[in-house]
Every structure is written in C-alpha cells, then in structure tokens.
Design a protein that fits this description.
Length: about 300
C-alpha cells in the first residue's frame, strides 16, 4: 500500500485493510491521506474507508481535510463525518462542540455549493442550541440555494416550536423551498394535511420543475402510492425528472434504479452528479456506502480504460 505503484492494487489494499478489525492501520491511512503528493483517487478512497470505520480517533484527520484546496477532498471528508454515529449520543459532548465550530468556520469560507449543503446536513445531526441558532441564521441570511438545506435540517428536530419558522416557506415562490418545507412539516400533526396536499399538487402539476420536486418529496417521505409515478418518469426524456425519479426509487429500496443512479453519477456533468449525490444524502449509511463503492469502481475503470 505505501510503496506500490499500481493504483488499483493500492486502492484494493485500502479496502481490505479498512475492514472492521483492522483499526490499527489508522497510522498508515493517515500517512496517505495527509500526503498532498499522493494521487487524489487514493486519498479519496482512504476518506471513504474512514467513513466506513467511523473511528473517533480519525475525526481530527477528517477535520484537517477541511483545509484542503481540493473541493473533492473536503467533500469526501464531510461525507465520511456524516456517517458517524456520535451525533445522537449524550457522550462526547466536547467532540461535538469542537466539530460544530469547525463546521461553522468551514461554512464561512467554503465556496463549493454542494459542500455548503453537506455542512448544513451534518450540523442538523448535532442537537444543541448553537446549531438551532446557526440554522435559523441561514434561513434569514442565506441565498435561495441553501435555505432549503436549513429547512430540512430544522425539520429533523421534531419540536413543534420549529413549525412557525418553516411554515411560511410553504408559500415560497421557490419550488425546492416549498417541498423542503412540506417534507419537514409532514411530520407534525397540525401541518401534516397541508403539507401532503401541497405535495399532491406538485405531483399533478404540468410544470416539470414542480413535478420533479414533487417526486423528490414522494421519495423522501416514501409515499408508497406514488411509487408508480417514479417508475413512470425513470425513462423520461427530461433529465431532471429522470434523476429525481431514480433518486426517489432508490429511497424506496428499488434495486433497478441503482443502475440508473450509477449511470448518472459516472457519465453526467459534475454539476448534475453533484446534485444527485445531494438528493441521496438522507439514505441509510449502508446503502450510501454501497452506492459510493460502486461509483468509485466504475469511475476508476472509466478513467483507466
């Protein structure tokens, strides 16, 4: 792994050593990760492996990657952190406190739009007053691109007090904000009906943008009687509808849609594949890991064929 010249063999070595029970090779992974002269593909594979291991000892290494000039490295570090299971624990309070402030600092200087979404997503997992204040600040100050991230994050707190901050976005002129608010408010008894009616209206819309975000909401909420619509648009000529349908079906656990998702990730422009990754962010960790592994392997073979 440290001295080999064959990239594929080295990447396979990272996968093997990263299997549970091989936590003692963290120093080897660190050496590769923090070597700016190493091939980016190998460093990304190390970050993917650290996301699988979720070792508390490696959190500082992931935070160091926040300062990388490579947006993909920062993205992979954030994705790895998102898989950690410490967020719901009452322990490791100071670890989470430090992580909050590191993420807050990264938010201020990050220039990649998808990475900003990743930051807000991870912050939504840290339940404390500082995070709530931060997210409410995003709602007030952020441009259209990230208000929807904050809406979704606030909805995860399952506190009735959050309704008054999210409800106004049901009337937003931005379809993404409307659906984010509907998804968040569908969990609350006093707003469930209004939220579901808005989603139904989007799914029946002739406006392709509204329809696409309606499909997104159907997938996020796993509305079973709308699954047929997702299948219908999986072969649509409209690229956005097709992408939303594929993402929604994967959330339903539909294995057929995995290939469609993989095709988009590997062959679509970076802006499109980046958007798809953000749509899949709420998937369970195991499914995300499976998709990421398939994607990395397909991308490697595409670039080296």
């Amino acid at each position: 792994l440290e001295h080999g010249e064959n990239l594929e063999e080295r990447m396979n070595a990272v996968d093997i050593l990263g299997q549970r029970g091989h936590w003692h090779i963290l120093d080897v992974l660190r050496k590769i990760l923090h070597d700016a002269g190493e091939k980016p593909e190998l460093r990304l594979r190390v970050l993917h492996t650290l996301g699988e291991l979720t070792l508390t000892e490696a959190m500082e290494d992931l935070i160091i990657c926040f300062h990388s000039k490579n947006a993909e490295i920062r993205a992979a570090a954030l994705d790895a952190l998102a898989r950690y299971r410490i967020f719901s624990s009452k322990k490791e309070i100071f670890v989470k406190w430090n992580l909050f402030h590191e993420l807050e600092d990264l938010y201020e200087r990050e220039t990649d739009e998808e990475n900003i979404s990743r930051i807000i997503f991870i912050l939504s997992k840290i339940s404390n007053l500082e995070v709530v204040e931060f997210l409410l600040g995003v709602l007030k100050k952020a441009d259209v691109k990230h208000k929807h991230d904050a809406i979704m994050a606030l909805g995860k707190f399952e506190d009735d007090g959050v309704v008054k901050f999210i409800a106004p976005f049901l009337q937003s002129k931005n379809p993404e904000e409307q659906m984010s608010a509907a998804i968040a408010l569908a969990a609350f008894n006093k707003t469930k009906l209004e939220a579901r009616e808005l989603i139904a209206g989007f799914l029946n819309s002739r406006d392709s943008e509204k329809l696409a975000w309606g499909i997104y909401a159907a997938g996020e909420l796993k509305i079973k009687d709308k699954k047929y619509l997702c299948h219908k648009y999986l072969t649509s000529k409209d690229k956005d509808l097709r992408m939303q349908a594929a993402a929604a079906l994967v959330k339903f656990g539909d294995q057929v849609a995995l290939q469609a998702v993989l095709d988009i990730l590997v062959n679509a422009p970076a802006t499109v594949s980046g958007k798809l990754k953000s749509l899949l962010r709420n998937l369970d960790g195991r499914t995300l890991w499976h998709i990421e592994k398939m994607y990395q392997e397909a991308l490697f073979h595409k670039n080296n064929s």
